[in-house]
Design goal:
The N and C termini lie far apart (66 Å). With 237 residues, the chain is mainly alpha-helical. The chain contains eleven helices and no strands. Helix 1 crosses helix 3, helix 5 runs parallel beside helix 9 and helix 8 crosses helix 9. It is globular.
Length: 237
């Protein structure tokens, strides 16, 4: 008899809170009937606990990132002006705001598990680098506090979502006067205003402190990118 067979319901349920990823969860469920019964009865709660272990306290923002699908909004509003399109995007984006679209009420789905683990790993790597540069050069792994780690991860997921929504649009950085000309320029001007309005509305959905955290992470990522570009062009001699 497996030692897990002797565990009671409560202890088996507690065991699930320590599972680090969804691959381990898959095999744990198959260990014995006891584990399967607990999982079947507490499936949503267990998926939430494992999601927390995978993505940390910022799991809601990680789920918002992987659940946003640009093509869904674009194809449903194709042919409209960009201003109308952004209205539609931001209206739908409200559905992704916690707690409405939270890991507790909407647990991770099987087809989302790999994506969640992927974005969580990327956020963890950036956090490790941030910790190494700003906290301690003696540790390759992050030694940030749980609160610091939460804020860094949350900012990473939100910046990634910002890019996912807006990076498709590579509009020129014209001013109103630059774009004032014929009908095509007028349409471009309207598109630029619509894009900037949508970006502002997205960022204003967060508090001032949360926007500051995003700025810190964005600046750090930009510095890392600039250093990599510079090192590529360094003379090896």
């Amino acid at each position: 008899m497996s030692s897990l067979d002797t565990l009671g319901y409560d202890l088996t349920e507690r065991l699930f809170t320590f599972i680090p990823d969804f691959g381990t969860l898959k095999y744990t469920v198959l260990v014995n009937r006891n584990c399967w019964d607990v999982f079947k009865n507490r499936k949503e709660w267990i998926l939430h606990q494992v999601s927390l272990n995978v993505a940390g306290l910022a799991v809601d923002d990680a789920l918002r990132l992987i659940r946003y699908n640009f093509s869904d909004w674009w194809h449903s509003y194709e042919g409209a002006s960009l201003c109308e399109y952004w209205d539609n995007v931001l209206d739908n984006y409200v559905e992704y705001q916690p707690p409405v679209w939270s890991a507790t009420k909407h647990p991770v789905k099987p087809n989302e598990m790999k994506s969640l683990e992927k974005v969580a790993t990327e956020a963890e790597r950036l956090e490790d680098l941030f910790s190494f540069r700003h906290k301690s050069r003696h540790s390759q792994k992050s030694i940030l506090t749980s609160n610091e780690s939460f804020k860094i991860s949350r900012a990473v997921y939100r910046l990634a979502l910002f890019r996912k929504i807006f990076a498709y649009w590579d509009l020129p950085c014209y001013t109103v006067t630059d774009a004032w000309g014929g009908e095509d320029d007028l349409n471009l001007w309207r598109d630029i205003l619509g894009l900037n309005w949508a970006r502002c509305n997205f960022l204003e959905s967060f508090t001032i402190e949360e926007r500051w955290e995003m700025q810190v992470v964005a600046r750090f990522a930009s510095e890392m990118r600039d250093q990599l570009v510079t090192s590529d062009y360094d003379d090896p001699n």
